[in-house]
Amino acid sequence: MKKYFEEFNIDCGFSQRPDGNSLDIRNAMAREAEVSGGLVVKANLVHGIDICIIDEEALSERPYLAVEDCDGLVTNLKNVTLTTTHGDCIPVFAYDPKKKAIGIAHAGWRGTADCVVSNLIYCMCEEYKCKPKDIHAVVGPGIGACCFEVDDDVVDYFTESMPWTEEYMARRSDGKYLIDLKGINCELLEVEGVKAENIFIDPDCTCCESSKDLYFSYRRDKCEERMLAYIRL
Ligand SMILES: [Zn+2]
To answer: Which residues touch 154 (CB under 8 Å, ≥6 apart)?
Structure first.
């Protein structure tokens, strides 16, 4: 399990292959939550940009809640574990140590192009009065610019709404493009006002051959297993 935000004394991580499949890890978390009175929330991902706010009302669903049609979650409640699953798509974690609010988002190429992380930061600011300059973010392990090969249609989808993303693309001799999704998500966070020094980009690519023992990769292996990203106050 890779851990983040340890300096803030909150629990945040991204599972690795030896930890097992996301399903089993989340089930174990739900069993723990049953004992401790906590709640485990799962975003049922649709590659969209909707963020769900987990408030007191959600606690009636203890110990487990699956939220339909959403790719991000935010809360300021303790003992609530926000989770998303990943098979190459980029996890983005956010924490505001001043307002004690957390957020998580799932950003594949479509979610990245539609700015799901911008929405995540916006929701934290609207709901918990966070200031972007106080928010710390992690752009977690996911498919890197080394492996994320796409065709013109994806390139056009990005550049039509955000011409600056061209900077994060490289055209190969065979006409295909490589896109740096982590770099784009990082820049989107900065556009929202998150300070560059408060953003950590995990360099791990889930799809590289060299990470076969560490990560499941949908693109590399067409496997059904996923990694679990989670954050909890
Ligand atoms: Zn790679």
So the answer is: 109, 113, 177, 179
Model confidence pTM above 0.90: yes
- Domains delineated in the chain: 2-144+184-232 (3.60.140.10)
Å from CA of 134 to ligand 1 middle: 31
Distance 139 CA to ligand 1 centre (A): 15
Q: CA 31, 34, 38, 44 torsion: positive or negative?
A: positive
Residue 63 CA, ligand 1 centroid: distance in Å: 36
Distance 177 CA to ligand 1 centre (A): 14
Backbone torsions φ then ψ of 130, nearest 5 degrees: -70, 155
Q: Which ranges of 181-229 would DSSP assign to H, the alpha helix?
A: 181-191, 218-221
In angstroms, what is the span from residue 206 Cα to ligand 1's centroid?
6
pLDDT in tens, 214-232: 999 999 999 999 999 999 9
Spatial strand order in the sheet of 136-139 = 51-54, 72-75, 101-107, 90-96, 136-139, 199-201
Ligand 1 centre to CA of 46 (Å) is 24
- Residue pLDDT, tens place only, 68-90: 999 999 999 999 999 999 999 99
Q: How far is the CA of 142 from the centre of ligand 1 (A)?
A: 9
Residue 88's nearest CA partner among 27, 45, 123 is 45
Distance 216 CA to ligand 1 centre (A): 12
Task: Calculate how far, in angstroms, residue 127's C-alpha sits from the geometric centre of ligand 1.
Answer: 36
Q: Which two tokens stand for residue 178?
A: 């490589």
Q: How far apart are CA 203 and CA 115, in angstroms?
A: 21
